[in-house]
User: What shape does this take?
Amino acid sequence: MVTASQLPFGETLRGRLGPPGHPSVLESSPRSRVWRIELSGRPAVLKQLVAGPEADERYAREVAALRIGGRASGTPVVPALLGTDPAERVLVIEHLDDRRPPAGWIVDYAAALARLHSTARPGDAGALPRWQGPTGDDVTSFLTLAETLGAVGPPGVRDELHALVERLGRAEGNALLHGDPCPGNDLHTPDGVRFIDFEQASLGSGVMELAYLRIGFPTCWCVTRASGPLLERAETAYRAAWHAETGTALPEAGLADACAGWLIRGDALVERAHRGTTDHLARVPDEDWTWGTATARQRLAHRLGVVAGMTEDHGGLRSLGVLAADLRRAVLDRWPTLRPVPERRP
Assistant: This one.
């Protein structure tokens, strides 16, 4: 049981928002502490980023993203930022009523994601870091895995992958990227979808997160796959919302590149706390592990199938498509009991 006097709610916040009341602890990651509080009889959320690696940066990202995302016209796409205390890495945001998402939730999700992405402007450069794509080390790890499992691929695949890394590294765009737009970080309120938890926000091409719908939410505990018609509806909703907000069409090119980029990243097989610690693709031949709704091998098989299907007619990724198809067959031959990733979110 926590009391109001125990909250990290200093004089600056009290002077602006009044004293907090009726605190209760909310579920959060190990990187933060979160409470539901009342301010003048109305509910709000108090969040503190705990001390640890990159805590100050994560706090700065979240505050900057909430301010940028708060510009959305019409229906909001983020909770209102009510107050901040940078010295304590504390922020106070609007409390939102969440409800269980409908069966076709990714359509509304995709439209809201596009509206979130569209809130950033060229003048925001420097407010958030640029999105970081895969590296040459990811290429080496992916090709080593393929060779270990007996899928060598066409001669040009290594050059294709290094060219992919270069393209992703210079991808244009000033979209506000959430950084972890996962089921659970989307709140389905009576007024529409809003996003929370922006500790990994960045600026870049919105296509990198549009790809989540196909590739299976690569930074998320909750991997899902959508049927073809539902996926088409969701991607159409994203493109329509992007055009409505920006007056520009989303480039057709780039989605296959984005999906391929997520495929070759071993860190997209583990939760954030374990990223950057080892070569996770190198672990796959000898061990499988469960994270959320799927195992590492399930995630890999799904992504291989997506990339193989998207690159058949892609001039710059045709060799990767052949390798992805061959590697997926090798994965399913070696582990025939692997099941597809789930269609429904928990």
User: Anything to note?
Assistant: The first strand starts at residue 20 and ends at 26. The mean pLDDT is 95. The chain is about 40% helix and 15% strand.
